[in-house]
Amino acid sequence: QGRNFFSIGNLDNILTTTTILGLIAIGQTLVILVGSLDLSVPFVVSLTSVLGGSIMAGETGNIVPAVVVALGVAALLGLVNGLVVSLLHVHGFVASLGLGLVVSGYLASNYAGSTGSAPREFRLLGATQIGPVPLSTIIMLGCAVAAILMLRRTRLGHHIYAVGGNREVARLSGIRTAVPVVAAHVLCSLLAGMAGLLLLARLSVGNPTAGSQGGYDLMSIAAVVLGGTLLAGGKGNVLGTLGGVAIFAVLSQVMSVLEVTSFLQDVIRGLVIVLAVAVYARREIERRPAPFDHLDARAVSPA
Questions:
Q1: Distance between CA 162 and CA 185 in Å, rounded?
Q2: Among 30, 127, 183, 203, which residue is least crowded by beta carbons within 10 Å?
Q3: Residues facing 129 on adjacent strands
């Protein structure tokens, strides 16, 4: 119909989608690498959005207290998830789902609709651009770089891979396995909280259903898997996750431009996920050596 996919509006929408989903997916990558899952992220996004909007109440002087409280609550929720997983040995899927339902019930009971208001100075966070790139996207990329450096250069990052690869071997090697699990969940919730605040800056009001409407729990997991991280943990990286996020952002915008129905959009996303993971799994099998390839034939012969 003559629409230009490379128009400024379309590219801005792609970068905005990449920013929000990217922040959540970076945190989800850390959790999956350590061998866990976090299904509470959409509710953390919604909670930080309404908390930030309620505390700011349109006043510039309330920006800092609102950000501190919102991120503090997000970190606390991540701490609860991490402690339940590491100390009570509850799988992250169940632990985070239970906590997510608690937060969802709180939101439904206390917030009937949009609440609070972000002052103009805070809304600039979602509207400011440095060249063609939104400031929020630069913040997300900064978090991605920090996560990559943490995984590659720090002891915590190495322990995350070790615990995700084999928790028992990591424990026998002298690693306190609870620390990487708790740290990964706290960082995941913090990044989800940042995503909620960026949504507040963009929408100017807190929305108690912003996270669930975006489906950020399953979408973030799909982006992580699409980026090559194993769901079993221990193998993967943040750079691949960003690639998965970019694929979903571009795909969503293409389908929006082509006016594809929402049902068919979900079908296409599902097919992309299944095909991509199937191809990745096949490549891993082909690269895996045969059981006795490294042995001499005479060494395994009956003689």
A1: 16
A2: 127
A3: 134
Q: Looking at this protein, which amino acid is placed at residue 18? A: T
CB 125: neighbour CB atoms within 10 A? 18
Average pLDDT of adjacent 10-residue blocks, the chain of 303 residues:
66 86 96 94 95 92 94 96 93 93 93 88 87 89 96 95 92 92 96 95 90 87 88 89 91 84 86 78 62 47 45
Task: Determine the Cα–Cα distance for residues 96 and 49; give it in Å rounded to an integer.
Answer: 19
CA 215-216-220 angle, to 5 degrees, is 130
> How far is 119 from 180, CA to CA, in rounded Å?
37
What CA–CA distance (Å, rounded) separates 155 from 162?
10
Which residues contact residue 122 at a Cβ distance below 8 angstroms, ignoring those fewer than 6 apart? 56, 60, 63, 200, 201
CA distance 171 to 208: 40
Q: How far apart are CA 294 and CA 303, in angstroms?
A: 19
Per the rule left: phi > 0, alpha: psi between -120 and 50, beta: everything else, 131 is left
Distance of alpha carbon 96 from alpha carbon 210, whole angstroms: 18
DSSP code, position 204: S
Q: Assign 243 to helix, strand or coil.
A: helix
DSSP string computed for 121-159: HHHHHHH-EETTEEHHHHHHHHHHHHHHHHHHHSHHHHH
- pTM for the structure as a whole: 0.89
Q: Which residues of 128-138 are buried (b: 16+ CB within 10 A; e: fewer)?
A: eeeeeebbbbb
Write the single-letter amino acid at 280: Y
- Classify burial at 224, counting beta carbons within 10 Å of its beta carbon; exposed 0-12, middle 13-18, buried 19 or more: buried
